[in-house]
Amino acid sequence: MQFKVYLFEDLTIKCALQPLTQHRKVAELWLGTSTLENKWPKRVAAPEKADILVLSAVLPLATTFALLDQLPADSSYVQEGRILAQRGSGKHLLTSTLPFLQHPEDLLTYQAAFLQAEIKGNHPNPGNNTLINPENIYIHPTAQVQGSILDASKGPIHIGEGVNLQIGTLIQGPAALLEGATTNIGAKIRPNTTVGPGCKVGGEINHCIFFPFSNKAHEGYLGNSIVGSFSNLGALTNGSNLRNDIQKVSLYDYTLKGPRPTGVTSLGQLIGDYVTTGVGTHLNTGTVIGSHCNLSSIGFPPRYIPSFSFGEYPALRAFDFDKAFASACAWMKLKNQEIPENLRQSMEEIWKADTSFRN
User: What is the pLDDT of residue 2?
Assistant: First the structure.
């Protein structure tokens, strides 16, 4: 890719990708080993400095780069009236097959492809570990890996800077544990999983994406799910990712303000930022949890939980705003992160947007 790119946001898509975009731009969503924006090798901060303007939801695959290379001067790639990429004036409209995110679960659909493409093995010394197909395994020199089994026979494995794999950790590739991530003793990381920077995980995790600084440190299962930042799933929190009748899963859609068929049979939970669950919480197949929730449940809570929900189901109520703000700040401090100046304002916007759903 030789051209310079400016990524522009589409508010309609940003809304559709909630709750994952309640505290971040579409370009800041995590996929594979990095955010979407960091996958563009020549990204610029101003449109006038770019050769091509690209919708931030467009997936930066090798096929995408090839199509953008072919975009003629003063032309745009469009799909159903939406501009996906524009060179110059963009007045000449060309129908495009550029892949782009339309729903949150699309991140899971493309997860394997990005992990396979982005991870390059460095044939590490096994030490006291068992490494299967070590040529497909990358372990950073600062990572601590003790008494673990890493199986890269079906996909590569990335162990990043400062990662700590405690004894008994089992990992099946493709999988990535990014800078500063930690596993608990006996963690089981199954294929197509990204554990983001600063996360701590344990139990069994399958085909999941953890955004930075979240925890699922203890026993419990999570599959085909996405967890936002600064969230903490308590011990024995379990998420179902398959209906008992093996039917396709529907998912709450922020644009439709109701359920939407996804067309897939395996889909667990979409969890926003700053969400905590109590010990033994059970989450149903296709559950969406907004940001800033503090909840627990012996039974299954609803499959849509609005932002700022608090309590033990069925006695959920609105989370006191000041307490929610204090909780968010506490989790950021625990992870040694600076509190953004606009955090309170951002939270107020989410509070107002979801007010009607909590009442």
Answer: 85
In the predicted model, is pLDDT for residue 299 greater than 90?
no
Query: Is residue 261 packed enough to be buried (19+ CB in 10 Å), middle (13-18) or exposed (0-12)?
Result: exposed
Q: Is the same domain home to 92 and 183?
A: no
The residue length of the chain stands at: 359
Under 8 Å between Cβ of 71 and 55: no
246, amino acid identity? I
Per-residue pLDDT, averaged over 54-68, amounts to: 96
Packed helices 343-358 and 321-334: angle between N→C axes, nearest 10 degrees? 130
Of 102, 131, 159, at which residue does a domain stop?
102
Give the count of domains, the chain. 2
- Tell me, yes or no, whether 76 and 188 share the same domain: no
pLDDT in tens, 229-287: 999 999 999 999 999 999 999 999 999 999 999 999 999 999 999 999 999 999 999 99
User: Domain range for residue 44?
Assistant: 5-102
Q: Is the CB of residue 35 less than 8 Å from the CB of residue 28?
A: yes
Same domain, 277 and 343: yes
Q: Cα torsion at 112, 273, 25, 140 (round to 10°)?
A: -50
Residues 6 or more apart in contact with residue 212 via CB below 8 angstroms: 30, 178, 196, 197, 198, 199, 229
For residue 150, give the CATH number of its domain: 2.160.10.10
pLDDT surpasses 60 at 288? yes
pLDDT at residue number 354: 81
Omega before 60 within 30 of 0, i.e. cis: no
| Domain identity same for 74 and 194 | no
Are 73 and 88 within 8 A, CB to CB?
yes
